[in-house]
Amino acid sequence: MAGAESVAPRFRAGDRVAVRAAYPIGHVRTPWYIRGKRGVIERLCGAFGNPEELAYARPGLPKQPLYRVRFLQREVWTAYGGSPGDTVDVEIFQHWLEPA
Amino acid sequence: MPHDHDHPHDHDHRRGHAPPHRHPKRADQDDTITQWKAMEIAVRELLIEKRVISAEEVRQQVEEMDNRTSLQGARVVARAWIDADYKKLLLNDGNAACEALGMESGPYKLVVVENTEQVHNVIVCTLCSCYPRWLLGLPPDWYKSRNYRSRVVNEPRDALMEFGTMIAKDRTVRVHDSTADMRYLVLPMRPAGTDGWSEEKLAALVTRDSMIGIAMAITP
């Protein structure tokens, strides 16, 4: 992963983040259900080509840091019926995250 | 025409002359040419014509894909059950752990999540059907269904119940949505009563479903 071709990571494991509540058209790999939700960075996965560009045969550079973000299910679904500590981990690219 | 339905027929073949069927014939699965099918055939034929790839290579790839099975994943899990250092490697760097067993390291980064008394993990790809194919083979149809993809993320405990898997309330259910460049494998809990078992014997207890997280490993 060439440094110059990757965006520097903004977040570290444990940081609280919010997913942007944006709804652009195109090939977006941020699931609809998680947009606007708050979670905690579980880990930095590395830097990967931006799928929103790759999907249209563009180079997808610079690579974007990709994180696994952990959300509490009861904060994702208002009527969640499971246990209070249940979680969902989602892979989210940095340009979809803001500090929270 | 396929003729594999299992209801009894009221005609008698021994008379050597079967009366017409009393139900509609089922369509062949490959009798509709969709846009994507046409596109695949066109691109494949072009690539072969231009000698970029050969028909033999295409056939070989399909065969290789079909031959990948969850036996690969089971080997990894069984080794982790008997070798603490290997388990550490598997949880830290899944791809390196595959390579350490002489298997392909995989085209994607492998994240292995461990089931414990406190935590049960389950894998889904809500966007499509991302799946660690080099360890588990092709994903089952239900894994790709809208029903599974939407419900396991929204009501995982109920979805698991429908697979016959009950997770106690005091155990955390952790869903992993495989949305980008990671692929996931659940490291199931080693069943009780398997002390001293060989790696090979243990591997036979590790099912595909236990590595997706919708079931437990087989208890002998």
Structure description:
The complex is a heterodimer of chains A (100) and B (220). Chain A is built from 2 helices and 5 strands. Chain A is mainly beta and 100 residues long. Chain A has one domain: Roll (SH3 type barrels), CATH 2.30.30. Chain A has a 5-stranded antiparallel beta sheet. With 220 residues, chain B is an alpha/beta fold. Chains A and B meet through strand 2 and strand 4 of A and helix 9 and strand 3 of B.
Any key phrases for this structure?
heterodimer; A: 100 residues; SH3 type barrels; globular; B: 220 residues; alpha/beta; Nitrile Hydratase, Chain A; 2 domains; two-stranded parallel sheet; 11% strand
| Global morphology of chain A | globular
- In helices, the fraction of residues of chain A equals under 10%
What is the C-level CATH assignment of the largest domain in chain B?
Answer: Alpha Beta
The main sheet of chain A comes to:
5 strands, antiparallel
Assembly level: heterodimer
In DSSP terms (H or I, runs of 4 or more residues), the helix count of chain B works out at 11
**CATH fold name of chain A:** SH3 type barrels
Helix/strand-derived category of chain B reads alpha/beta
CATH superfamily of the largest domain in chain B: Nitrile hydratase alpha /Thiocyanate hydrolase gamma
Report the biggest beta sheet of chain B as strand number plus sense, adding barrel if it closes: 2 strands, parallel
| Tally of DSSP β-strands of chain B | 4
Give the class-level CATH name of chain A.
Mainly Beta
Q: Mean pLDDT of chain A, as a whole number?
A: 95
Count of folded domains of chain A: 1
